[in-house]
Amino acid sequence: MKPQAEVEQVWPRDGRIRVVGRLHGVPPDAGSRWRLRLTRRSRPDHVLRYDADLDGARFACGWDVGDLAAYDGFGGADQWDLHLTDGARTLRVGRKLDDIRGKKAVMVYPEQRVPGADFGVRPYFTVEDNLSLECRS
């Protein structure tokens, strides 16, 4: 299996989303600075970056869903893909090291609404068991 950022927990709550997991297939490097990158599928030039906290191979990162609302204007639904990167390596964030197949139909997370806006963000697993975000206005 190629290196990956394996999701262990997804916490959509109080207008924020937090993702916790482990790096697999990546040798520990105390000097690496990992960041979570959110990339809009329909406009790959729209990218948000957040620092990821690392403790050995364990990572954690969170963000405010209002950050994605700034990119609204498409009048419908759009998707954002999650990657963890240290500049030299880029890993897709997903969950593949368990016995659950077809997570898209099994694991359903609540939508987080942006206060004062007609905009919501819901994390979901893709058909490849990668973690993405669906944004709706």
Mean pLDDT: 90
Low-confidence stretches: none
Q: Report the structural category.
A: mainly beta
Strand content: over 45%
Total of DSSP H or I helical runs spanning 4+ residues:
2
N-to-C SSE string, H for helix and E for strand = EEEEEEHEEHEEE
Distance between the termini: 37 Å
Instruction: Specify the oligomeric state.
Output: single chain
- Strand elements, count: 11
CA gyration radius, whole angstroms: 15 Å
Question: Roughly what percent helix?
Answer: under 10%
The largest pleated sheet is described as: 11 strands, mixed
Shape: globular
Structural description of this entry:
The chain is mainly beta and 137 residues long. Helix content is 6%, strand content 50%. The chain is built from two helices and eleven strands; from the N terminus they run ββββββαββαβββ. It has helices spanning 66-69, 103-106, and strands at 4-13, 16-24, 35-40, 47-51, 53-55, 58-64, 77-85, 90-94, 112-113, 120-125, 131-136. Strands 1, 2, 3, 4, 5, 6, 7, 8, 9, 10 and 11 form an eleven-stranded mixed β-sheet that branches. A hairpin with a 2-residue loop joins β1 and β2. The longest helix has 4 residues, at 66-69. The radius of gyration is 15 Å and the shape is globular. The N and C termini lie far apart (37 Å). The relative contact order is 0.25. The model has no long low-confidence stretch (mean pLDDT 90).
Write a concise keyword list for the protein shown above.
mainly beta; 11 strands; 137 residues; 6% helix
